[in-house]
Amino acid sequence: MRIFFPILFTMAFVSALIYEAEAASFHVRKGTPLHTIKKAIALAGDSDTVFVHEGTYLETQLLIRKPLSLIGVNRPIIDAQHGDEILIVEAGNVLIRGFRLQNIGVSHLKDRAAIRIVESREVIIDDNILNNTFFGIYLQNSFQCTVRNNTVRGEAYDEMNAGNAIHIWKGRQMEVINNHLSHHRDGIYFEFVDQSLIRGNTSQDNMRYGLHFMFSNYDTYQENTFQRNGAGVAVMFSKHIKMVKNTFEENWGGSSYGILLKEISDGFMSQNTFKSNTVGVYAEGASRIKIENNNFIDNGKAMDIKGNCIDNQILSNNFIGNTFEVLTNSSSNLNHFEGNYWAQYSGYDLDKDGIGDFPHRPVNLFALITDKIPAANMLLYSFLVNALDMAERMFPEIIPENLSDERPRIKPLNHD
Amino acid sequence: MIKIDHLYKNFGRHQVLNDISLHFEKNQAIALIGPNGSGKSTLIKTILGLVLPQQGEITFDGISIAGQSHYRKEIGYMPQMSRFPANMTVSQLFSMMKSLRKNETRRDLDLYRAFDIDQMGSKRLEILSGGMKQKVSAALAFLFDPKVLVLDEPTAGLDPIANEILKNKLQQSLAKERLILISSHILNDLDDITTHVSYLMEGEVKFFKPLEQLKTETAESRLNRIIAQVLKQQNSHD
Amino acid sequence: MINITKFIINDLIKNWILLLYTALLLLATLGFFLLEGQGDKAILGVLNLTLLLVPMITVIFSTIYYYNMYEFLILLMAQPLRRRSILGSLFLGLVVSFGLAILAGLGLPLWLLHPGGVSLVLIVVALLLTFIFIGLALFVAVWLKDKARGMGMALFLWVYFVLIFDGLVLLMMYNFSDYPIGKIVLFITFLNPVDLGRIMVLMQTEAAALMGYSGAVFRQFFSEWRGMLASLLIMLAWSLCPAWLSLRMFRVKDL
């Protein structure tokens, strides 16, 4: 795969050079004979460039069926006036850059999107602003496409009437980079998308998930920020996912998670920050995932690991300021905790090796109680609960005895 | 002045006052005597409105005291035991008392001067000895020049000199148409000023007679002997 | 009434236990902020301390104070004063003195170190708990003439509100966990001012979301201003009811 990419790029570059030689330019401008984009697309030949100049164009269903560059100059606006989709790409090697696309009507029959890419390769969607477009950028059954530097902002007010900002259904080697996605149903939606990269995006204030990720394998997402989404981030039914340097924060709400890991295996999570979430990491049926060098800060529950999670390794993370550190619903534990820093650790380090002299049990009895009886939350921080918890940690009766970090760190690790 | 009419009081099963009827008038110094637990303190507290009787009535100058507080203007009370707020001084106590009864201008500062209360004015009430506290209590009882003086075991903690001062003061008061009510179980202390004796036992008034009459009846002069005689006579009657 | 109140306040503010209590609150509050930093954690520490210490010291001290003042109360009662105003003065004196202790020991440092809504609510809750436990102390002391029994009862009340009540609630929730008990639990919290106070403060912190986890009823109630107002009124009722009952009892009490 690593070799595959450069070769591909070189080929693309060479082919672009060849086309460049014979490419023609068209200028769409208000008040000139060529004043609609539709006409320009029709006139343009393969690999030509259409420049669209400043102004508001009331056009929909612009079908692109040939390799073409569609470039906005001074950010022209294409307004669908609450109607149908705007750009539909059904060809490879298409570039769409510099537009503002807006006002697509909500439809319950069809997932209308501002830009739809159908069964195409090497399409680049760059530097566009999408506003109130139901779905934003919708890629189906496409490969090697890049979506970058776009701002996609919805006006969703409930889940039923909202679309996703970037929606990819079936694809490979996609890149979603540096986009800003907000106020949709899901910020980024991945289903059956393999070997792809999601990097540097900000996904916030979406109704459901910041990132909704299913049946997709060998993907990487890194350096993204997921903030204040209704339910946080969900990564489900997937294998070999790398999750690095992302920030998951302020996902507060009844059933909101920093990240939900469901039925996923062989993943790698490192250097992520989980801050101020109801639950930092919620894992159900997750196995062989390495969770390493992450920061869990000020969450309600830092980790909720269900009993069906097996062989996960939780190493060298910082747990600071969380109400509850680890929660589980099983009295046995098949995961490995080691070398983490736990702010609630009350031990000492007499031999000064930086490792606490006795193990830390991060599971709080009260957390287990509230998990079973949510109403018991009203007793949070009461004297009774504090006393019960202290007793239970000393003489474990209900909490899984072997869920413990044998080598808890005395000082937090610096992960930067 | 004070009329007690068929007074009953029980604390649970324990009958403390059992059909007590007494009538006190001015110019009387009544010695309320009886063994411990005979009901003298309860009777005094009932007169002061501290204990509420189950049955019967007490009138003060013809007006029932039930639910009243105003009549207590005319009563100076010296309790058996005194404890004051620890951190206040003697002079603060007196000025508070005066401020509580601002409208009353009558003052009797004889005891206040005789006991030299001014001199201990800056002392904290906590550090006063028992005798000094009694002096403060006595001075407070007389402070507003009341028509009735109620003293509960007044001589218990007083030194002989103070005792003498108090007795003289009581004698003087008696001459000024006052009513004095003294409860005590130490009998001979009260001989000099007593005009009437009321003997309580097990919540009942065994007798209530002028001292002179008792003296002639028993041919004794000392109070405790008189009482012994009377009790003996009564027992032989039974 | 004002005169006796002033006199009692004067006596109390020179009381070394009250001064020690103020100093302890002050030191502990400062300590939490030094150790835990600025955030919610320090507030939670102060909250825990407040919920434990304030009721305990207040109820025990006030009970003892009543018994120590008993003879003095009798002396006052022998004056031409109404009983109501005498016990009322004692209550007011305790309320003002302990209120000042809370403001100086807890309010001042909290407001300087962490000004804002949560501190305000915490201070108000601490004050209300103080009033409530003074009321309860007077109720116990007027009710029980015997000092030892009164002290025992005061201690029991403290343990009850801080520990036993919560234990019973937890047991109840365990047994009825299959039923929708969200609303009932809400009403149950009204029965314990310590719980109510704790939740009022917690609702101002990040822990609110965790509490909300337990059901919409709870969160909805406490996060709305009307819920907050209702909680305040309930706390006020809690501070007035025992005091009012003790006044009623005192009116017909044999002393």
Automatic annotation (TrEMBL), chain A:
The entry's keywords: Repeat, Ubl conjugation pathway
Pathway participation: Protein modification; protein ubiquitination
UniProt xrefs under SUPFAM superfamilies: Pectin lyase-like
Pfam families in the cross-refs: NosD
Keyword Iron set for record: no
Span of domain Carbohydrate-binding/sugar hydrolysis: 52-191, 216-358
InterPro entries: Carb-bd_sugar_hydrolysis-dom, NosD_copper_fam, NosD_dom, Para_beta_helix_rpt-2, PbH1, Pectin_lyas_fold, Pectin_lyase_fold/virulence, SCF-Subunits/Alg-Epimerases
Taxonomic superkingdom: Bacteria
Protein name: Nitrous oxidase accessory protein
Species this chain originates from: Cyclobacterium lianum
Automatic annotation (TrEMBL), chain B:
Database matches in Gene3D superfamilies: P-loop containing nucleotide triphosphate hydrolases
Residue span, ABC transporter domain: 2-227
InterPro entries reported for this sequence: AAA+_ATPase, ABC_transporter-like_ATP-bd, ABC_Transporter_VariousFunc, P-loop_NTPase
Pfam families assigned: ABC_tran
TM region(s), chain numbering: none
Keyword Nucleotide-binding attached: yes
Listed GO MF terms: ATP binding; ATP hydrolysis activity
Signal peptide: none
SMART domains: AAA
Swiss-Prot/TrEMBL keywords: ATP-binding, Nucleotide-binding, Transport
PROSITE patterns per record: ABC_TRANSPORTER_2
Highest taxon, organism lineage: Bacteria
Protein name: Cu-processing system ATP-binding protein
Organism of derivation: Cyclobacterium lianum
Automatic annotation (TrEMBL), chain C:
Pfam families in the cross-refs: ABC2_membrane_2
The UniProt record lists the keyword Transmembrane: yes
Record keywords: Membrane, Transmembrane, Transmembrane helix
Highest rank taxon of the organism: Bacteria
GO MF, one example: ABC-type transporter activity
Signal peptide as annotated in the record: none
Transmembrane segments: 12-34, 46-67, 87-112, 118-143, 155-176, 196-216, 228-247
Keyword Cell inner membrane: no
One GO cellular component term: plasma membrane
Protein name stated in the entry: Cu-processing system permease protein
Provenance organism: Cyclobacterium lianum
Lineage of origin: Bacteria, Pseudomonadati, Bacteroidota, Cytophagia, Cytophagales
